[in-house]
Amino acid sequence: MTDTIPTSHENGEADDVVARVLARAETRSGVRTFGAAQALQDASTTAGADSDGDQWDREDRQALRRVPGLSTELEDVTEVEYRQLRLENVVLVGVYPQGEQEDAENSLRELAALAETAGAIVLDAVLQRRPHPDPATYLGSGKAQELRDLVAAVGADTVIADTELAPSQRRALEDVVKVKVIDRTTVILDIFSQHAKSREGKAQVELAQLEYLLPRLRGWGDSMSRQAGGQVGAGGAGMGSRGPGETKIELDRRRIRTKMALLRRQIRDFAPAREAKRAERTRNTIPSVAIAGYTNAGKSSLLNRLTSAGVLVENALFATLDATVRRSETVDGRVFTLTDTVGFVRNLPHQLVEAFRSTLEEVAGADVVLHVVDAAHPDPASQLATVRDVMAEAGARDAHEIVVFNKADLIDADDRMVLRGLVPNAMFVSSRTGEGIDELRTAVEAALPLPAVEVHALVPYDRGDLVSAAHDSGLIISEGHEEGGTALHAHVSARLAAELAPFLR
Questions:
Q1: What's the pTM value of the predicted model, to 2 decimals?
Q2: Which of 338, 333, 285 is nearest to 468 (CA)?
Q3: Looking at residues 116-124, what average pLDDT do you find?
Q4: pLDDT 10s digits, 384-404
Q5: What's the CATH code, domain 286-447?
Q6: Residue 307 is inside which H or E element, if any?
Q7: Which CATH number describes the domain made up of 2-195?
């Protein structure tokens, strides 16, 4: 059974890209362009807060925008400097077994949001119920023919599969539908390549792309070189030219493997810098708080609310790729760090595991993890499960977890009751309106670990540096001024306690 997803062309509608389509499983015809994907917010709910800063990064990212209705084909050589990137028109396709229709629909909504983030217009979507994807054409020969007719009817130029396709499936499906066929992994890699900013992020994304590309290289007929053999050799070159030769595709594979080895060495060289920064914070016993969660859950907006960091905030999936660390202080003056991390996603491609390495390290080494969940998402339970699975693999099982349902301004009281039943001790906040931010800040400060050593000391007035260090990294219980110096009762780190040892009472 194939379900065709009809939707509206009006941009002002708040309906998601796939919702109305998926709600009418019995509909067999009627194809129209649909609006914004449900995983993305509409324009009325994405206004940035005053704490978001100037957002120069976002302005730079949006400097080159794709536009509809313009051809990318070169018709006049004089137009080459004035061409703009064309929005791709795509059709989504997915396969699900019996009893998993709801999960398949949510996954398709997420794929629509991924496609829009990558720069595409989703025209239609197709879901097929079958036990397993067809090993040849993913959908089966008959449904592949129907997909070809649908693609021709809506004028699409790309088909996106909701799961990772084998190279043979991709080629066979392209032969049938006569347009470009890509899969979910390709879309995610494309988004990563667009949003990567740091040298480490760019290297990790390039490595992931090459790992994905290596088994999917294709030869293109005349680009294949002939084997050198026989009397005439290769092209009549004669002696010295005979041998097994190397085809063009083999040469490409060898170059890709060489490039991958170089990138792996570069990525290994980045690790000591991260470890040095983390070791410095550990040596100074600075507690760390990691903000983790699903993509587009509002982690960067929450960081801006808590610290006025001014990091990039965008209504897009994987807007943040590089971990951002910001300094913050508690009410009593203790210093701690807040780390914004890249969001997770269901069915994370294995090629991107290395690209998430720095994020996983930050989450695993954090004292407190703010697990941010999109309260307005249609399936918040799957977000919770996905992120917790990744955190468990990263070794963050023992970290103190605070579940935060963000975007609380977009849900009603009934939804809150449902979410409260999901996580009884969760907190509800809104990065947009500021609701619950003060309560969250109080909860984070209460969850921070206390310094290990309790000291009673009389610090001479000429050692004010020790008193200042106790204020920065320790917890002051009481402080007074006596004739011999500053009477200090505090919880401090073992390192600072050793420096205060000569002045202990």
A1: 0.70
A2: 333
A3: 85
A4: 888 888 777 766 667 788 899
A5: 3.40.50.300
A6: helix 299-307
A7: 3.40.50.11060
